[in-house]
Amino acid sequence: MNYFYKNLSIWLIIALVALLVFNMLKKPAETYHNVAFTEFLQKVDNEKLTKVSIKDDVVTWKNADGIKFRTVIPPNSKALDHLLSHNVTVNVEKEVKPHWFLTTFLSWIPFILIGILWFFYMRGSSQSGGKAMAFGKSRAQLIDPQKSKVTFDDVAGIDEAKEELAEIVDFLKNPKKFTEAGARIPTGVLLYGEPGTGKTLLAKAIAGEAGVPFYSISGSNFVEMYVGVGASRVRDLFKEGKKKAPCIIFIDEIDAVGRHRSAGGAAGNDEREQTLNQLLVEMDGFEVNDHVIVIAATNRQDILDPALLRPGRFDRQVLVPLPDVGGREKILKVHASKVKIGNDIDWKTIAQGTPGFSGAQLANMINEAALLMARKNAPVINMAILEEAKDKVMMGAERRSMIITEKEKKITAYHESGHALVAWMLPGADPVHKVTIIPRGRALGLTMQLPEIERNSHDRTYLFNNLCTLLGGRIAEEIVFNETTTGAGNDIERVSDLARRMVCEWGMSEEIGPITYVQPDPLNGRAGQILSEETAQLINKEVKRLINDAYDRAKSILTENRAALDAITQALLEKETISREDIERIVNNSARK
Ligand code: ADP
Ligand code: ZN
């Protein structure tokens, strides 16, 4: 709807400009030399005129040089007879006049357009939040407690967040108990965490558990083209909320309005600031017995204006983290209960194979599996289907139809074998789970590693092993073909990024020591440092040294185990996808030879 009004006004302006331009470009009145009537008669007598046009009482003609003349003939002058008697060709024109209604209408269009624009503008900035067109209305979506049946059971794997929020449910269910005890219940709760971790779901579940109405709106819905609209929408939203109390007001993407006021460029955004101020005013204005709880969600808690986080506002902040292995297993099971699932599923393995997945991605994975099941006419989702769905969500759909030359295929096979073998040989690297040369998304092939345990922090050895593994692909190509390809582009990007972070963020270079060197990022209000020429050079040197060390390590692994490299490649070319067990067998075999 916002877009509708925005577009409408833009089109109106364009129409207005076009109309003005059109009027200006309209054929200019032609210029004529005026000739006295008597002179005209003389010319006719002297036979100097052979052809004229008459339009009403105006006679026009051209001379031999094309210059235009005209004269006005008096009524009843018998000029026509005169002309005809001298054999002048007379061309009589009649002006075609558009209907009076059309002319009037056309001449009024600009005013009508201006009027409409003005009307919208006034609606936009009207502080009362105009009722007629609902321009300043909140646009929040209301979910009725009777209809939505989201409960805490639907939210899995984030038990700590759930526990923290249970109190809110209690309060909404029985506010009297709390107010009589004189307890101060937080009016604002900020849920923060990566996208898709279930913040919206949690807020809905709170409403569902407490059986109260749930107003939901996104922060970006407040920010409008016209100054004042956002503020008026905030006011409207809270007014509605208070009417339905006890209830929950959920503001998604609060960072859209609540961004740190100094961040985001020097040119302040009046509209956003006004909206934010209104939000603060409303939250400060809560009475103890308003029983409205505002829940906001963001994945950029770091850029929020500190004023939002002050006591009485969003003073309760709850982290909604990405789920760990156990959490992922639980989330998968919640979503699996809605589809037909075979009994061969090893949930633990699947959960292990989806590190970093958010709840939303896991839900999406189950959905993909259901789609695959239908496409394959399978009776249930089995382990193979689930694995396929996982790969699809993780790496994009397979592109079996992609045309790959034999040579490309061979290079890819060596490249992936290089990754796999290096990872296999390095103790402490994540074990290889699967290697494939079936193209997916933009990648020609893939080596998947599975962490044995969920890691929350990484030691230098582990990260260094990662560097080696990432470089393994490129090095295998070099060793075998004595040539480099673009296929390693993404690996190289990741290597550079990881090495730079090891040096600049995690103090893993002895030369530089434990100092962070962070680039300034003014957009997000991060100061950082401007590096001196010397420091920048030192950093580059250290990054390069780290990568060189990893390169040497990986290269010696691959040259020393060339037989295994060839054997893995051969298996890949034959089967396209090989598993951990395959690699184990191949490596053991070639070691024995
Ligand atoms: P956010 O608001 O954090 O971006 P959402 O709440 O919109 O994430 O999550 C999107 C969907 O992902 C949910 O509707 C749900 O299906 C699924 N989901 C996310 N987190 C969880 C979870 N912890 N448990 C169960 N499902 C989840
Ligand atoms: Zn690679």
Briefly characterize the structure.
This protein is an alpha/beta fold and 593 residues long. The protein has helices spanning 2-25, 37-45, 79-85, 100-125, 159-173, 175-180, 199-210, 219-222, 229-243, 255-258, 270-284, 325-336, 347-352, 359-375, 383-395, 406-425, 460-481, 489-504, 533-560, 562-575, 580-592; strands spanning 33-34, 51-55, 58-62, 68-72, 89-93, 141-143, 188-192, 214-218, 247-252, 292-298, 316-319, 432-436, 446-449, 577-579. The longest helix is centred in the C-terminal third of the chain and has 28 residues, at 533-560.
Structure, explained:
The protein is of the alpha/beta class. β3 and β4 (68-72) form a beta hairpin. The protein contains 21 helices and 14 strands. Helices cover 50% and strands 11% of the residues. The strands form three sheets. A six-stranded mixed beta sheet has the order 6-8-9-10-7-11, with helices on both faces. The radius of gyration is 38 Å and the shape is extended. α9 (229-243) runs parallel beside α11 (270-284), α18 (489-504) packs across α19 (533-560) and α20 packs across α21 (580-592). It has helices at residues 2-25, 37-45, 79-85, 100-125, 159-173, 175-180, 199-210, 219-222, 229-243, 255-258, 270-284, 325-336, 347-352, 359-375, 383-395, 406-425, 460-481, 489-504, 533-560, 562-575, 580-592; strands at residues 33-34, 51-55, 58-62, 68-72, 89-93, 141-143, 188-192, 214-218, 247-252, 292-298, 316-319, 432-436, 446-449, 577-579. It has four domains: 31-93, Signal recognition particle alu RNA binding heterodimer, srp9/1 (2-Layer Sandwich), CATH 3.30.720; 141-319, P-loop containing nucleotide triphosphate hydrolases (Rossmann fold), CATH 3.40.50.300; 325-395, Helicase, Ruva Protein, domain 3 (Orthogonal Bundle); 406-592, Peptidase M41 (Methane Monooxygenase Hydroxylase, Chain G, domain 1, Up-down Bundle), CATH 1.20.58.760. The protein starts with a helix and ends with a helix.
